[in-house]
């Protein structure tokens, strides 16, 4: 096959690829609010397919074939007309035309053909040399980098490795993917198609929290699961072949941007709403202190040069796990573009249910604080009536018109302070009304932040006494917002204590328990309770409550405990385990293993819950299911230890 023929096919494919690019860009712009991040990315594969398919591959559906066939029909008709006229009118034969004129005309045509062929052959050689040069540079860079990576040390930090294992378990990945310390990459990246590894700067590891590491690892594992490294190599090859066409280069740069958004969406589908916010914060944090990013072929990093951080953060903020509303639109688009774009010009024509949804069928009492909405009420049994300030269970409800309450709060704030707001919420959304002392009158609960403080807020409560508002609580605490307010008799003295929870991290909250003392609120214990989710639990035979804490572990798994106040501190109340775990925790994990039967840690947590519920027979069955899966996390050893516990 001649080089000029290959170059001709490349040029034709590149021209059609440019047309497909324009079609895709127009459709993406018209339907940008209808296509989710995954579809925005997948539609670019039409361009890849178009550039890979040889130009000789024609289909009856090709738009260009229609034009070509019409052209052929016109040319044929014209030829017939000319021949007919020639015969009917007996036009002069070739012998009657002056030979000098014919020879001159033929020489001119032959010269034009020869010149075109000559320049086209020269262009073919230049194109081939360009391809060889670019490929040589890419392969050399990748080879040198590969040798450098082989000499780098592996991460041996136990906590970091554990986070990676948990992240792999979340995405159901059993492949061995080591963590390599490498300062050259600047940004955390996945490297290697055959033997993938996560590259990260050792200094960066020291600066990151465990939650931030988890976000990074999930992103890189998402690249692995979606085969993005392999796709990137295909894109590099196509860019090299079409190095002369800036439209193709522009298209693939946009595809890479959409790839990052699709990767983010893939990660978010495994995260809860609180974790999604933390994921976005991690992206912003990395973008702020990572600079001098170098392009390395064959890698996929969480932050890239020129990465559209703003667009990614907006997508994360607006992400929904089940965007099926417009599913018909992208399918129709793909069908239309396939008919237009995947065919050739003939040569002659030139992206889990939320926790709330999971627990609804079991009518669990578990409360799920929702970062995007109003503050948690503390009980799923709570029911509200329109325009009322109090619920049947006595839990918190925000008032519809709070301008006066906002002004009251501001009159108590220091000069350099402001009411805490988060996300798209306003000041009035963060001023809450609740009867904290059972006298039938609502108190005001809010939080404020001093201008110079970033990591702490002040929790404040106001009570109306004798017609005037009085401050009953003003305490500096860790966190960035109030997400739990409830009253319950925790110590059994017949009077309700006040439970105030603050969100201090993506999935972590901190609960303080206060008691009324001389019309002021004071902590009953200096030791706060950490939680991801909370539940207030009845203690049989006693007029007091216990607190069930759900602390996030992996995926949608939690470490659950039931705590009871013993007069000095909160301690685990194992006597309450059987009833609570049987009614609430076991049904939760039964639902999880039903939805994701191949995730090992859900079987482990189900078995552990069944043991605490007193159902050891069922626990042994769950353990066997987990052992048969052998996902690597939890390990076989951990399952066997649990088996010994269930066998006693």
TrEMBL record:
What the entry lists under InterPro entries is as follows:
Beta-lactam_resp_regulator, Integrin_alpha_N, Peptidase_M56
Q: Report keywords, A-Z.
A: Membrane, Transmembrane, Transmembrane helix
Q: Where are the transmembrane segments?
A: 6-27, 39-57, 118-141, 230-252, 283-303, 324-345
Q: Which Pfam families match?
A: Peptidase_M56
The keyword Lipoprotein is annotated on this UniProt entry: no
**UniProt biased composition (Low complexity):** 376-386
Q: Has UniProt tagged this entry with the keyword Protein biosynthesis?
A: no
Q: Taxonomically, which superkingdom?
A: Bacteria
* Region listing for Disordered, in residue ranges: 370-398
Q: Which residues form the Peptidase M56 domain?
A: 10-316
What this protein is called in its record is: Peptidase M56 domain-containing protein
What organism does this protein naturally occur in? Clostridium autoethanogenum
């Amino acid at each position: 096959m001649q080089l000029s023929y290959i170059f001709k096919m490349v040029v034709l494919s590149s021209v059609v690829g440019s047309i497909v690019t324009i079609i895709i860009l127009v459709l993406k712009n018209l339907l940008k609010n209808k296509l989710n991040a995954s579809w925005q990315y997948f539609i670019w594969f039409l361009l890849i397919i178009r550039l890979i398919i040889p130009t000789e591959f024609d289909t009856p559906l090709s738009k260009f074939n229609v034009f070509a066939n019409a052209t052929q029909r016109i040319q044929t008709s014209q030829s017939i007309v000319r021949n007919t006229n020639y015969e009917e009118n007996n036009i002069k034969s070739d012998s009657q035309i002056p030979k000098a004129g014919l020879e001159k005309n033929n020489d001119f045509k032959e010269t034009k053909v020869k010149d075109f062929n000559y320049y086209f052959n020269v262009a073919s050689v230049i194109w081939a040399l360009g391809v060889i040069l670019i490929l040589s540079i890419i392969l050399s860079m990748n080879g040198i980098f590969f040798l450098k990576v082989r000499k780098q040390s592996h991460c041996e930090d136990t906590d970091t490795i554990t986070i990676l294992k948990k992240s792999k378990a979340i995405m159901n990945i059993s492949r061995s993917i080591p963590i390599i310390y490498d300062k050259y990459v600047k940004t955390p990246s996945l490297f290697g198609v055959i033997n993938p590894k996560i590259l990260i700067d050792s200094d960066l590891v020291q600066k990151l929290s465990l939650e931030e590491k988890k976000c990074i690892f999930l992103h890189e594992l998402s690249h692995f699961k979606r085969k993005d490294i392999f796709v990137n190599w295909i894109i590099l090859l196509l860019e090299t072949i079409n190095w002369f066409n800036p439209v193709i280069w522009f298209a693939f740069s946009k595809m890479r941007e959409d790839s990052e958004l699709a990767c983010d969406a893939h990660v978010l589908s495994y995260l809860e709403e609180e974790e999604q916010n933390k994921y976005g914060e991690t992206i912003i944090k990395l973008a702020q202190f990572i600079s001098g990013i170098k392009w390395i072929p064959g890698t996929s990093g969480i932050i890239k040069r020129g990465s559209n951080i703003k667009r990614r953060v907006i997508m994360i903020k607006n992400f929904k796990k089940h965007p099926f509303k417009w599913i018909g639109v992208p399918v129709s688009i793909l069908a239309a573009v396939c008919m237009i774009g995947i065919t050739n010009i003939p040569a002659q024509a030139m992206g889990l249910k939320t926790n709330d949804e999971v627990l609804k069928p079991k009518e669990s009492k578990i409360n799920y604080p929702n970062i995007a909405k109003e503050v948690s009420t503390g009980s799923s049994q709570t029911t509200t009536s329109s325009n009322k300030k109090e619920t049947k269970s006595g839990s918190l409800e925000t008032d519809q018109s709070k301008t006066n309450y906002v002004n009251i709060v501001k009159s108590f704030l220091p000069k350099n302070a402001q009411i805490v707001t988060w996300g798209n919420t306003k000041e009035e959304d963060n001023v809450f009304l609740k009867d904290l002392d059972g006298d039938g009158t609502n108190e005001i609960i809010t939080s404020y932040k001093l201008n110079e403080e970033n990591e702490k807020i002040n929790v404040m409560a106001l009570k109306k006494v004798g017609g005037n508002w009085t401050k009953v609580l003003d305490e500096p605490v860790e966190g960035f917002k109030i997400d739990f307010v409830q009253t319950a008799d925790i110590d059994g003295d017949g009077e309700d204590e006040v439970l105030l929870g603050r969100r201090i991290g993506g999935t972590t909250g901190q609960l303080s328990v206060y008691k009324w003392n001389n019309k002021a609120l004071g902590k009953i214990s200096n030791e706060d309770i950490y939680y991801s989710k909370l539940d207030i639990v009845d203690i049989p035979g006693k007029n007091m409550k216990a607190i069930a804490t759900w602390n996030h572990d992996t995926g949608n798994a939690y470490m659950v405990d039931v705590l009871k106040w013993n007069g000095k501190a909160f301690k685990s109340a194992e006597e309450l385990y059987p009833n609570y775990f049987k009614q609430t925790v076991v049904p939760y994990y039964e639902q999880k293993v039903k939805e994701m039967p191949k995730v090992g840690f859900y079987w482990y947590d189900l078995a552990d819950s069944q043991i605490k519920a007193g159902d050891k027979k069922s626990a042994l069955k769950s353990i066997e299911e987990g052992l048969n899966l052998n996902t690597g996390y939890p390990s076989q050893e951990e399952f066997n230890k649990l088996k010994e516990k269930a066998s006693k």
